[in-house]
Each structure stands twice: as structure tokens, then as C-alpha cells.
Amino acid sequence: MNPASWFNQVVTVTEMNLRNLPARLGTSLVAVIGIGGVVAVLVSLLSMGEGFRAALDLSGRDDVAMILRGGSSDELSSGFSRDEFNVIVSAPGIVRDARGPVASGELYTIVDLPMRSTGTAANVPFRGVTSRAVDVRDQFRIVAGRMFEPGKDEVIIGRGAFAQFGNVDLGRVVTWGSHSWRVVGIFEAGGSVSESEVWTDLTLLQGVYRRGNSVQCVRAKLESPATLRSVKAALERDPRVNVSVRSERDFYADQSRILIGLVKYVGTTIAVLMGIGAVFAALNTMYSAVSSRTREIATLRALGFGAAPVVTSVLLESVMLGLLGGIVGGVLVYFVLNGYQASTLNWASFSQITFAFTVTPRLLVTGLVYSLILGFIGGLLPGVRAARMPVTAGLREL
Amino acid sequence: MIAKYLPLLGSSLRRKRLRTFFTVASILIAFLLFGLAESMRYAFASGVEVAGADRLLTMHKISFTQLLPASYENRIKAVDGVVAVAPQTWFGAWFRDPHNQIPAFPTKPETFLRIYPDFIVPQAQKQAWIADRTGILIGHALTDLYGWKVGDTVPLKSSIWRKLDGSDTWDVTVRAIFDMPEGGDTRQIFLNQDYFEEGKQMAKGYIGWYVIKIRDPDQARTVSRRIDALFANSPAETKTSSERAMAQSFVNQVGNIGAILTAIVGAVFFTMLLVTANTMAQSVRERTNEIGVLKTLGYSNPGVLGLVLSESVLITTLGGVLGMAAAWWIGVQFASVFRQYLPGFQVPGSAFVAAGIYMVGLGLVAGAVPAVQAMRLSIVEALRRD
After folding, report:
1. What CA–CA distance (Å, rounded) separates A78 from B250?
2. For residue B132, what pLDDT is reported?
């Protein structure tokens, strides 16, 4: 058979199949919805992981060094005295301006706030910062109210935390322990983790929490990402301090490792299991599509149509149903979930991190590819059966 | 009466074996997912269930990361209704890989064992742990993981606490290994408070929080209030809650896992309902003729309705039972793996009951429309169709 006539046959048979699709609307719809459901669940789970990664990814910069005490992998367990802080910020390779080294010593504590959704208490990071905190972060901006004034009992709250937690409207007074704070501003920081936090003046927080003049971490602006190595080398050689130096990006990649892994692992398992279920549904649909057309297919074969065009046409129909399901599922998730704000506990820091479900084009493509694969598997066996059927038996079939 | 329907039921299921197989298989998958989702929810909740109702936790009012004076211990002990008090501190332990934090807590061995009678430890090992300052009590899951035995000396690292000499390595000896009743977390280490207090460089005289055993669980609220009143307006105010409430608050913080799982299982069930309903509808449509014959032979309308419905329920039950069995099998087979990550992972009894109800319900709903159609079919009409 020459390719042109082969192609013509495929087109003819497929066209015929699709034209009588309305007669099999019910069963075809089941296959579409089945595959659509699988794609919807897969994409929504992955978009959760993606949102999480986005929040942590945006937070980490290559040209900011994250300096913690040696052996500490999170801010909570780290700590430096004032003297150690002074040694650290004088390391060569850290940017300096008129006010001295561009490095931010910060205190990281945790406070309770009620979640807006459930009213139950959640751990929220409460960070003590100096004016330097803004210099080592991207796109910091007050979106409502104003910055806190140093020395006053005032806090500003990140956009994400503001959306997730209650009791923090502008002007409200919140009490943690025996100390009360007034909320004076809401800030954004380019979608980073900082937006899950509450900030106040470092010196004040050190006093209230009786931390002397210690800080827990130092974020230092580097002249270039490459100078990280020299800062690291210089500080590790210095006997006055015991530090672990890494780029902020590595630090956050580390923090998100467990959660992203979990989401991926659980998400994939569920999607594979559901996918198997959906393939069974698709197989059912296509087998019944083939068996209800036994006579038509046999007639075609008798007229001289080849086996390959018959298989191809069944496959095409099945893949099309799969594709339709994939589009339905993807579109549904995109419109319902994309941008949906949520928060969860980041085990690495024992505190809440807010993130938005992010349905990226790549995830939609993943969903579509998956739906195509499911459709293909669902059509393969029934297609082969249709082609293998002896013509005489098929014609005799009721 | 029923017996004469059974062969009919069997033959209609065998009519299109492939279709029956695929339908049963997709229902199997649905119930397997249901069983796994319920197991996971149970695992998350089991920490809460295991937490004793007669135990309270007293921590710093601001957050559990703030330390409390060690001197509070005796004052809490004197509170009416309190039986025993033991301090605990987050040790930030790790071994080999600093990213792999091991939950470890220095505490006072004797009081601790009294407060937690549900820890299963051989009597001789208990004594050995109490007697050795550098001894640790360690969970089964961890000794399995690292291959440690009683008597082994282990260099445990702390990401928080340094010793007087500046090193972060604490040499401890495995003195006792504990197991726990079903669902308990055996990935923990308990050190000796005396060794910790003496060895640490900073925060001398401070501890993390107190675990308290009370005489009467019904008095939990009153005793909590008494304890907190004791330290009101002091530099370190406290917040006391039941251990169960504390465990629940951590589960809540992970986000609404239950809601997410319910949404997924709901989506799966909805899809499966469609699949089954579709299969039943097809099978009834194909058998229009046969149903006409059955009715001619004298089968009653309700009889035909029952026949189609039982066929549908049989399919969902078959798939459901196999699916739940598979979920249960996975829980048992991989128990040792789950022990490391999700202690308490198993299909809870309540899930089996719920699954049974869903199987029958799913079958009835899916079979309803075709069954009613089959019942209403008139003989003449049915026999005329090819």
C-alpha cells in the first residue's frame, strides 16, 4: 500500500468514527471525565509543589551569603554574639557602602497567630531586623501603612502572613507573652518567604526576648556570587568564629527539600494509581466502541481497507478523547486553583510558610502528555482486536 | 427463591469477561486509594491519639522555642493535682547527615518513665538507663535504622547545644531500647538531663518545657490554669495545655490534610461511579432482548430490578473488597518502611466500615437508572429490538 492511500484510509475511517461519536456520547464522556479527573488531581498536586518551590526559590539569591553557626542547618538553632557578628561582617568579599558592610544580622523567633481559615494557632516567624534587612532582599516594598519606627513597639507584616492569619489588621494591637505590639504596615518582598513573616526592630526584640545583643543569622551582600568561596574560606580559617557559609539560594533549596520531595512522591503515587484506574475506564469505552461497530469495521475490511488504518483510527479516537480529558482537567485546575493562597508547616524551620498554588505552562503540558499516554494505552488493545477480527465472523455479528 | 437468580447473576458477569474485569479493576483502584488515604490520615492523627489525656505540657507563653527556668520544676510539682514533672529540651540531634534531624530530648529518666508508662522497655534496661549519666533511651525504629545495640557508644551531634569545650559531639551510650503500642513514634531519643545540664556551654539552668502527669484527666483544665497562674507576670510566663491539644495543634498546622485527601478521594469516587454506571447501562442495553425473554418466562418486574441492582452491587463489592485488601496488605508489607517516616500507617477499622457502606452505595447508585429501565421494559418492546 502506498503512503498516500494509507493516509487516505486513516482519514476516512477516523472521520467515520468521529461522525458517529454522538451516538456513543455517554461512554465517550465517561472516558473524557475519567482522564480529566486524573489530570486535574495530578496538576493540582504538582502545582502545590511548584508554588512552594516558587516561594523558596524567589527567596534565595546567589549574591547573598547566608551565614549560620557551624553545624546549624536552620536559623532557629544558630546564634552569634555581637563580637562574632563584627568579625563576620568584616570578611573580605562583602559589599560595603557609606554606612559600612551591607550585612544584616537578624533574630529569628516564633510566635502564635490564629489561622484565618480554621481559627487554630499557627507558628509564625517573628524576625528582628535592622534597616540593613531591606538591602539584602529583593523588591522590598511597603504596600500599606508604613515601616516600623526603631525603638517603638511596632511590627510590619508580610503580605502572605497577612492573608493567612487573623488578628493582624493595620492598627491592631497583638500581644505575645507579656509584650504588646501595634501592626503599622504590610510589606511585600517579591513573593519570597519573607512575606510569611512578621518583622520588628532588632534591638527592641533582643531586649524583649532577653537575647542580649546576639543575632541568629547574618545575611551578607556579596560583591558577586563568585566571592562566596573567598568569604567562606576566610571565615572558616578565622579561629574567632565557627560558621557555616552558603548562598541564600542553597539555604532555601535545602529547606524546601523535604516538603517538595513529599509533595512529588505522594503526588506521583496518586497520579499513577488513578491513571491505572482511568486506563481501565478508557479501555472499557474503546472496547465497547469497537464492539458496537464490529459490522462496520468488517465491512470496511471487506471493501479492502487495511488493518493498520483501522488500528490507527481507533487509536486516534482514543487519544483524542484523552486529549479532551486532559484539556478539561487542566483548564479546570487552572481557573479554580491557580494563585490560591495556602500555608503549611515548614518542618525545617518549625514555622509557617505561605505559598500560592502555581499552575505553570509546564505543568499543563505534563498533564496533557499524561492524558495522551492514558488515551493511547486505552486505545491500543481494542484497536488491535478490531484489526485482527476475521472479516467473515465480523459480518455475521449482530 | 434467591437461589434461582444466582446462576443468572454469574452468567451476566461472565457475559463480557473483559468488561467485568476492567470495571472491577478500576473500582479496586478507587478503594485502594481510599484505603491509603485513610491510612495516611490515621497516621497523622495517631500522634494525637497516642498522646495521653493525663499529661500536660507547660511551655513558654510566647513559643516553645523560648526556654523556661529549671527552677519551675519544683514549683509545678507542688501544684495540687500534679503527680510528676519532668523537663525536656529540644536537642537538635543529628547523626551523619545534619539535614536528618533526630527528635532527641534530655530529660530526667526516672520521672520520665513514670509519666510515660506506655513506653515498652525491659526492666533491666530501665535501671541501666537511670544509672548511666551518658545513657540514652532510644526508639526501635532508630536502632533498626542505624544498627545500634544496647551498650554501643554513639557520637551524637547537636545543631544547637555545644559542650563546655566547644565541641558539638555528645558521646552517649545506648542503655535502653523502647517499643510502643500500635501507632506510637519510635524514632526518638531521650538523654539524661544531668549529663546535658553539666555539659552544655550556654543557657545553664534553663530547659525547654515540662511534661506533667496529673492525677485526674478531668481536672486537666483546672490544673493547667493553676500552673499558669503560678508564673503570671513573671519574666517567663507559661502556657499549659494537654499533650493531646498540643499534638493536634501541630497536625492542624500542616494545613488541612484531611480536606485535601477528601477532595482527592471524592474525585476518584465520582469518576468510578461514572465508570460503573456506564458499564451497567451498556450491559443492560445489550441485554434488552434477554430481559424480554426473562419477563416472558415469568420473571417479575421487581425480580428484574433486583437482578440488575445486585449485579451492580456485586461488581462494586468485588472491586471494593479487593482494593481494601490491597491497601491493608501494603500497610502490613511495608510496615518497617512506614515506621521510619509515617508511624501508625495502617488502614483503620473505621475505614473498613465506611468502605463497606460506599461499596453498596456506589453499586446501588450506579445500577439505579439501568435497573429501573430494565424493570419498565415491556416484553413486546424488548423482543422487537435486535
Report:
1. 23
2. 93
What are the chain B neighbours of A176 within 8 Å (beta carbons)? 61-62
Distance from CA of B206 to the nearest CA of A (A): 13
pLDDT band at residue A260 using 50, 70 and 90 as cut-offs: confident
Q: Please compute the mean of the pLDDT values over residues B303-331 and round it to a whole number.
A: 91
Q: Give the separation between CA B316 and CA A186, rounded to whole angstroms.
A: 54
Return the percentage of chain B with pLDDT > 90, whole number.
33
pTM over 0.90: no
The residue of chain A nearest to residue B252, with distances taken between CA atoms, is A120
Q: Which residues in A lie closer than 8 A to residue B57 (C-beta atoms)?
A: none
Compute the distance between CA of residue B378 and CA of residue B288 in angstroms, rounded to an integer. 10
pLDDT tens for B101-142 read 788 999 999 999 999 988 899 999 999 999 999 999 999 888
Q: In angstroms, rounded to a whole number, what is the distance separating the alpha carbons of residues A291 and B17?
A: 14
Would you state the cell numbers that stand for residue B112, as one nine-digit string? Answer: 520520665
Interface of A with B in 214-273 (CB under 8 A): 242, 254, 257, 270, 273
The larger pLDDT score, comparing residue A92 to residue A354, is at: A92
The CB density around residue B117, as the number of other CB atoms within 10 Å, is 9
Three cell numbers written together for A98: 557609606
Alpha helices in B170-287 (DSSP H): 193-199, 220-230, 243-253, 257-286
Give me the amino acid identity at A105.
G
How far is residue B216 CA from its own chain's centroid? 27
Cβ pair A163, A354 in contact under 8 A: yes
Separation CA A80–CA A201 (nearest Å)? 18
Alpha helix ranges (H) inside chain B: 5-15, 17-50, 72-77, 109-115, 123-131, 140-146, 193-199, 220-230, 243-253, 257-286, 288-296, 301-333, 335-341, 349-376, 379-384
- For the record, the C-alpha cell of A143 comes out as 504596600
**Rounded to whole angstroms, how far apart are CA atoms B208 and A103?**
31
The interface pTM score, or ipTM, of the predicted complex is 0.71
User: Phi and psi dihedrals of B274, rounded to 5?
Assistant: -60, -45
Question: Rounded to whole angstroms, how far apart are CA atoms B36 and B45?
Answer: 14
What confidence category does residue B256 fall into, taking pLDDT thresholds of 50, 70 and 90?
Answer: low
Where are the domains positioned within chain B?
5-48+256-384, 50-253
